[in-house]
TrEMBL record:
Organism in which the protein naturally occurs: Trichogramma brassicae
UniProt name for this protein: Fatty acid desaturase domain-containing protein
Keyword Membrane found: yes
Record GO cellular component, one term: endoplasmic reticulum membrane
Occurrences of domain Fatty acid desaturase (ranges): 94-294
Length: 356
């Protein structure tokens, strides 16, 4: 266990001891039992990992089969779809991918998970619908997991731990039971502010229905009744091709953007600057910056709109008053962090080096 986690656990233990005012020996016994259980859970998990793949009981086989079938269907679609003959469906699919990206990047990520800005009701509704169109899991679940990811990045408590390799961080984490530390640390993360939002409450209460409607049924019906698309191509494009592509856009932030790219802001962390991922995710690929300044609503450097249409849209909503209290670090703070922790590739670092 890292030193900072040991300190945190000790502080939690001491504060609970003072508050409860119970017998010291009893608390010590309870604490020993708690630590023993944690170690037993971790040991059991390590034994599972050592087993042959096909024998492992920690594999979520339904999820694995679903992912395989989804991607086989999507691959077949990508290879056989008549893109130029079905121009309306092609353009609409691209629009739906961009809409989902905006819901994930601007909504569930920057608004609800990070609270990097505030949004009025109309914008929150738009963002929730856009997020639901991505077909990912519940708003509360996503936000909580992301807070855990930032707090315990690249440790056993990280749900998408990139230190476990590309495939685990990309999609493997969805097909396996969670590490005991993910479950334990997840309970420590406060999500009361997310639950206080009535838009999230409604999204959570009827989540499965909303996801089915906005991610699959409505897009398919729009294709069929909007421009007389065949049911075959409508379903293939929306339920397989567009859905799989959209999922992989988000997953790529956990994998590619943690494993490939430079570290101009903080060379001591894994998240990296990845221009390609920014293109496919609406501006989420500037990941070294984001993990260094997670409260910045732009998730990219000062005044930088490079491949970041999510920030452009949020700024437009800010102009009409629907988005406000946009948080961002000062230019001075950014420059100081670059000079002290960057890998030397940033222009500011190079100028500072020349000055010396």
């Amino acid at each position: 266990m890292p030193p900072n986690e040991q300190i945190r656990d000790i502080c939690e233990f001491e504060s609970s001891q003072d508050a409860a005012a119970v017998d010291e020996s009893k608390i010590s016994e309870e604490e020993r039992a708690k630590q023993a259980k944690i170690q037993a859970d971790i040991k059991a998990y390590e034994e599972l990992v050592a087993m042959p793949f096909y024998k492992r009981p920690d594999i979520k086989w339904f999820n694995l089969y679903f992912m395989v079938m989804l991607h086989l269907g999507a691959l077949y679609g990508f290879l056989t779809f008549p893109y130029f003959e079905k121009k309306a469906t092609t353009v609409f699919s691209i629009f739906m991918i961009c809409l989902a990206n905006f819901g994930v990047a601007g909504g569930i990520h920057r608004l609800w998970a990070h609270r990097s800005y505030k949004a009025k009701l109309p914008l929150r509704v738009i963002l929730m619908i856009a997020y639901l169109s991505s077909g990912q899991y519940s708003p509360l679940y996503w936000s909580r997991d992301h807070r855990v990811h930032h707090k315990f990045s690249e440790t056993d408590a990280d749900p998408v731990n990139a230190a476990r390799g590309f495939w685990f961080s990309h999609v493997g984490w969805l097909t396996m039971k969670r590490h005991p530390e993910v479950v334990r640390k997840g309970k420590m993360v406060d999500v009361s502010d997310i639950l206080a939002d009535p838009v999230v409450q409604i999204g959570e209460k009827y989540f499965e229905l909303w996801r089915l409607l906005f991610a699959f049924i409505i897009p398919t019906l729009i294709c069929v009744y909007g421009w007389n698309e065949t049911w075959y191509y409508a379903i293939l494009s929306q339920a397989f091709m567009r859905y799989a592509f959209s999922l992989n856009c988000t997953w790529s932030i956990n994998s590619f953007a943690h494993l490939i790219g430079g570290h101009p802001y903080d060379k001591f962390i894994m998240p990296a600057e990845n221009l390609v991922m920014s293109f496919f995710t609406g501006g989420e690929g500037w990941h070294n910056y984001h993990h260094t300044f997670p409260w910045d609503y732009k998730t990219s450097e000062f005044g930088n709109y490079s491949l970041n249409y999510t920030t452009i849209l949020l700024d437009l909503f800010a102009k009409i008053g629907w988005a406000y209290d946009m948080k961002q670090p000062s230019k001075t703070l950014i420059e100081n962090v670059i000079k002290n922790r960057g890998d030397g590739t940033h222009e500011i670092s190079r100028k500072a080096e020349k000055a010396h």
